[in-house]
Amino acid sequence: MSRVDFAYGAAHRLRMACGTAARHVGAGRRLLVYCTDERRLRRFDALLWEFEPASFIPHALADDPLADRADVILVADAATLAGMPPGGWLLNLDLDCPPQAERFERILEIVSGHEADIQAARARWSRYQQAGHDVRGHRLPSSHPAAGNHRGA
């Protein structure tokens, strides 16, 4: 089973996700980002371009010819996710649990303080636990830079 880490208290979920992606790229780790909401995934894609003005987070949509060279792969649907190699780390930006979550070594969940986001996260937490995953929660410090105090947050 996978280890699932929930980070609670992000001032801005997608900006926090950008910071998470940047840390993983900096550590030399490839990261899949899953979200079936096309608008949210496009917004995350745009934020990756502007997140750190002095650096670049190499990313691509899974169906892009350059995806095999990107450190962050954006996955928009369950069929594409199923075709990705097993193992590795997945950042879930969807409101539901990713399909076949057990295929991933680690799943990262970021939760903002918005009530709808909190409720959706609680439902995912419960589903992960019922499936037998190792689920852990982490409260983000309110002064955490990627928690929303970043330029433009």
Give an overview of the whole structure:
By secondary structure, the chain is an alpha/beta fold. It is built from 4 helices and 7 strands, in the order E-H-E-H-E-E-H-E-E-H-E. The chain has a 7-stranded parallel β-sheet with strand order 3-4-2-5-6-1-7, with helices on both faces. Helix 1 (13-26) crosses helix 2. The longest helix has 16 residues, at 115-130. The radius of gyration is 14 Å and the shape is globular. It starts with a strand and ends in a 14-residue tail after the last strand. One of its GO terms (molecular function) is DNA binding. InterPro entries: DNA_pol3_chi (IPR007459), PolIII_chi_sf (IPR036768). It comes from Castellaniella ginsengisoli. This is DNA polymerase III subunit chi.
How would you sum up this structure in a few lines?
The chain has 153 residues and is an alpha/beta fold. It contains four helices and seven strands. The longest helix has 16 residues, at 115-130.
Task: Give descriptors for this structure.
transferase, alpha/beta, EC 2.7.7.7, 31% helix, DNA polymerase III subunit chi, DNA_pol3_chi, 153 residues, seven-stranded parallel sheet
